[in-house]
Amino acid sequence: MAAPAASPVSATVSITPARAAFERLRIQAPLLRREDAAARIVRLRRLAAWLTANRVAIQTALYADFRKPAAETDLTEIWSTQAEIKHVIAHLKQWMAPKRVGTPLSLFGTRSWVQYEPKGVCLIIAPWNYPFYLAVGPLVSALAAGNCCVLKPSELTPHVATLLRRLAAEVFDPAEVVVVEGDKTVATELLSFPFDHIFFTGSPEVGKIVMRAAAEHLSGVTLELGGKSPAVVDATANLRDTAEKLVWGKFLNAGQTCVAPDYVLVQEPVQEALVREMEAVIRRSYNPAGAGVEASESFARIVNRQHFNRLAGLLEEAQTAGASVAIGGEIDSSHCFIAPTVLTQVPPESRLMQEEIFGPLLPLVPFHTLAEAADFINSRPKPLAQYIFTRNAENQRYLLQNVSAGGAAVNETIVHLGHSELPFGGVGNSGVGKAHGHYGFLAFSNEKAVLKQRVGRTSIKLLYPPYTPKVQKMLDLLLRYL
To answer: Is 148 an annotated catalytic residue?
Structure first.
């Protein structure tokens, strides 16, 4: 047995605010561990009440950070979080209850169950694209499981970060939940602490850094990453319906969504018709008065100049390499505006087809056969989401069976993310672990296996040493029949 680890804090080490906060949580964690469902639900109800009371403040913070429309904030940040809280409250007592399991004949006389316990102190690193929902959503799961939490919001959305700090101060005991603000230097310091679980949402590149840091302490990880999520549109699809759903899913939040369609594989005979339908939908959604998308209050902006420059560079490089702008293409650097843009004839080796776009640029790639489409997707890292638009059940079956992805939606985009009973997460390059609802509760819980044996004569004692011929005969029977 290994010797007990030394205390991570010594008198010779400078105690930073982040380290001090972490130590407070470590002291508190054993107390939260003993709480019942009712105590945890009280905490979640306080959080829900705060969201209701601060709806306008949340809208204002999101608008200040990147002009996110209030309606999009209501849908994707506030309602999504409230729906998660409501679902957790309704089911938490059931989730926390020990789960009896069956007994194999070879262990006759025992009783066994799975008991759920909190992991302890958890770190949640939130991204900038949905900076409220992707911070508070995992926090709901962590609190439901009985953990203490450090929440690290993105420094790229400072108004939301400030609001999250106020939320924590007004709703939670500082020994239960603490918000630590700062840049990557602060994140690096936090990752050096021995957290029991780390929940990170961001890019695969940074996800690898988080996983390496977690390995130093053998911390558990949930990595919600991204990748190039494809949409496949076959010749049987209802093109008007498809266009409406693609435009909404892609240009929501100005394309800054981890599960946004990153490119569309469209069966060649219907590509031109799909472009026409998408153009009409973009006009209805973002330019109904003809004043231009730039004047629309329904379209967000790119979060900052750095990300704007990257997207503008992707667009320019693709056009230089031969891509054509079928819809949109307008940009304005003065307020990080890029119009909803659809491109065709995009070279497959271009950065636009190699990198996750994370913005309002949508390449269309023609294909002939479903096998060709599946091979194209499978030649790349596994995506976070897969979208299929078809009215052919066999085509649906083929694409679901032959393409690996974290999740999928048929004749829809993004909505699977909001289904409380579905796990959300990636596979391979697009993520590790699952979140939301019961799956989020499990991510932040240790599923402790418990077996209770009776006292005295037990079946397993018959197999104790010495290994006589009688014991060997019993083992032979066990291997043959059990």
So the answer is: no
| 122 belongs to the catalytic site | no
Q: What is the pTM of this model?
A: 0.93
pLDDT in tens, 399-436: 999 999 999 999 999 999 999 999 999 999 999 999 99
**From 122, 148, 258, 336, active-site residue:** 258
Question: How far is CA 144 from its chain centroid?
Answer: 17
* CA–CA gap between residue 237 and residue 386 (Å, rounded): 16
Say which of 224, 244, 277, 356 is annotated catalytic.
224
Cβ atoms within 10 Å, residue 399: 24
- CA-angle at 21, arms to 17 and 22, nearest 5°: 120
